[in-house]
Amino acid sequence: MSNLGMQLVYGLVNAHPDLVCERVFLPDSKSPPRSVESSRPLTDFPILLCTVSFEQDYVNLVDLLIRGGIEPFAAKRGERDVIAPGAPLVVGGGVATFINPEPLAPYFDLLLPGEAEPVLPGLLDRLLAHAARGFPSRDELLLELALHQPGCYVPRFYEMEYRDGELAAINPRSKVPCPVRKATLQEPAVAGHSLLLTADTEFSDLFLTELGRGCSRGCRFCAAGFVYRPPRLWPAASIICALEEKGEQTSRVGLLGMEMARAADLARISEVLGASSCQLSFSSLRADAISPELLKLLGASGLKTAAIAPDGGSERLRRVINKGITEAELLWAAEELVKAGVTNLKLYFMIGLPTETEQDLQELAGLTLRIRERIGAVGRARGRLAGLTVSLNSFVPKAWTPFQFAAFAGVPELKAKIQFLRRQFAGQANIRLNVDNPDNAFFQAVLARGDRKVGEMLFHLAAGPANWRQLFRRHDVQPEHYTRERGRDELFVWEVIGHGISRAYLWAEYRRALAGKSTPVCDTANCRRCGVCDGK
User: Fold this and answer.
1) pLDDT of residue 204
2) C-alpha to C-alpha distance for 182 and 148, rounded to whole angstroms
3) What is the DSSP string of 277-343?
4) How many Å apart are CA 280 and CA 268, to the nearest integer?
5) Largest CA distance in the chain
6) Which of 59, 356, 377, 396 has its CA 20 to 30 A from that of 53?
7) Rounded to whole angstroms, how far apart are CA atoms 350 and 309?
8) Residue 234: is its pLDDT beyond 60?
9) How far apart are CA 368 and CA 352, in angstroms?
10) What does each C-alpha distance from 533 to 80, 403, 522, 528 come to in angstroms?
11) Where in the chain is the domain with CATH 3.80.30.20?
């Protein structure tokens, strides 16, 4: 409910004078889902807009449709040609759907790859014009959208052709575009921000504001850093306009995109937050993005918990992933954050990265101990030690990144790495270890580079509890096929979406990663390496 993307769409639709948008979430119980605003069932709505941010939500989405009394498969839903309550038009968006839309393609009539603001208003007008004719001919509407409304992907008009188990061609029909270009927002007058705050959510009193979209750093594992290209930093004026919408009762503000913020902008934002006695919150910080202005803002906010993400445990691995952060910067950042008043410091690492060795894991443990020593000196001087939490997350290769070609490390290998690190930290005081489940990461890796065959398995998983590996094999879908290393020339299902990124660039970046070579940050004024800014 606190998801900023969902709130932006909710606001865009309700801003239209002829439309009303209500929110529906999957209930914790097995009861049928009903809307928050009027407690209406899903079968009351002719159009469903679904936002999906994470692969873990795929099964939940199918479950939501089934429990809501909606035919989940778009092809069967389309047998009723007229769009109506009970047989709605199901439209998908959210970052997961434009990284790789194919696992969800069987369930959506329409997908909107990219950002909602530039495409949704025009889409709503076309839907209303169609509704004025009684919503006749679902296919007629979808073809009109696919041909004439930019940023619209209609899966039923694209056939995935396979030969010998591998994708051989993507065949569009009816002259629809291929690839479908994503929609990208230009500079807004007011930065994206929270529209609804409620006590019934985890972030109940946190007002979120975007500082921009995308990231210039080019970390090779990060899909968001590639699919949101070109990176855009909003002007300080539009950010401050957004902050002015938060209301006098709001005491906490979360800033999204801290790694891109300019020092001068942070100083202005600090003044605005200080004047309204607001505290600052954020998910994690880049060690090299911590400035005196930011530290001043953190100190004034009374922030007690902060996170920094080395991601790679060694200097060599950080070159492999193009993190661009040195150990010296990490040590300095940890010390300065604790000096600013942070009492709980979190470190985020990935394990199972390409080329990772036992030596890299040893260096991860060594870096953690050196950070503990550095912040311990600060804590002893003030009479209170800061706690240190190490979070280990299994690396999952994602589409549209240089690591789309890489293999998933494998569950046994990841469990062995976790056990190795547990031994390294055994008996170490003031270090807490959090570890994700490699089995869950394996499932996420299958979904992340999955196709429509994987998508069909979501229905069986949503229909009832089952061991997902056994279920896949029962239907002759081999999970390992999706987690293997890929070749330079293999066609990928997600290339039905066009992000403007050159495949040759991604392959070259993968080869540079394997060689341990770094790449400079994205410079949209001069850089033409990846292809996104060509001709702009």
Assistant:
1) 66
2) 14
3) TPEEE-S-B-GGG--HHHHHHHHHHT--EEEEEEESSSHHHHHHTT----HHHHHHHHHHHHHTT--
4) 14
5) 74
6) 356
7) 9
8) yes
9) 18
10) 43, 21, 10, 6
11) 206-449+500-514
- Is residue 340 a contact partner of residue 386, using CB atoms and an 8 Å limit? no
Please tell me the distance from the alpha carbon of residue 219 to that of residue 398, in angstroms, as a whole number: 12
Strand partners, 389: 346, 432
Residue with tokens 């199901």: 90
**Fold category of 206-449+500-514 in CATH:** pyruvate-formate lyase- activating enzyme (3.80.30)
Phi, psi of 337, rounded to the nearest 5 degrees: -65, -40
Whole-Å CA distances, 301 to 107, 274, 305, 341 = 45, 8, 11, 10
Q: Which tokens hold the place of 12?
A: 């865009």
Distance CA 348, CA 287 (A): 12
Note whether 226 and 510 are within 8 A (CB). Answer: no
Give pLDDT tens digits for 316-341. 999 999 999 999 999 999 999 999 89
Strand runs (DSSP E) across 180-288, as ranges?
180-181, 206-210, 212-213, 232-233, 252-256, 279-281
Tokens encoding 72: 């989940």
User: What mean pLDDT do residues 483-495 have?
Assistant: 97
For 41, 47, 66, 462, the CA distances from 61, given in Å and listed in that order, are: 15, 15, 9, 9
The fraction of the chain above a pLDDT of 70, given in percent, is: 97
Residue spans of beta strands (DSSP E) within 316-439? 344-351, 387-394, 431-435
Which pair of tokens denotes residue 329? Answer: 């910067």
- Closest to 5 (Cα-Cα) out of 94, 113, 90, 124: 94
